[in-house]
Amino acid sequence: MSGRTHTRARPERTCVGCRKRAAKNDLLRIVMIEDACVPDPRGTLPGRGAYVHPAPVCLDQAVRRRAFTRALRAPRALDTNALRRYVEQTTVAEQATP
């Protein structure tokens, strides 16, 4: 044996909110459907995707910087209400589990 450890390469993506790189499965994929940002937790919806940490802080930064509009190549500002509800629900659920 060569003594090297064989680790699998894990895909990384950049959060559009905080601009930090993280493993793809640690981030939430966002897609544009009509004029709204929609969460895609399974990563199976068609179309261009953007990634964000599922945390209100990163979501607020992305909205303030208009990062979703740029990353998804949208012609105008996108509605993020459904996305905000999803992130708030997952944050509350994570805090409730011990």
From TrEMBL:
Q: What is the protein's name according to its record?
A: YlxR family protein
Fetch the CDD domains from UniProt: YlxR
Q: Where does the record place the YlxR domain?
A: 13-75
Output the SUPFAM superfamilies linked to this UniProt entry: YlxR-like
Q: Which InterPro entries does the UniProt record give?
A: YlxR, YlxR-like_sf, YlxR_dom
Tell me the classification of the organism that encodes this protein.
Answer: Bacteria, Bacillati, Actinomycetota, Actinomycetes, Kitasatosporales
> Mind telling me which Pfam families this protein's record contains?
YlxR
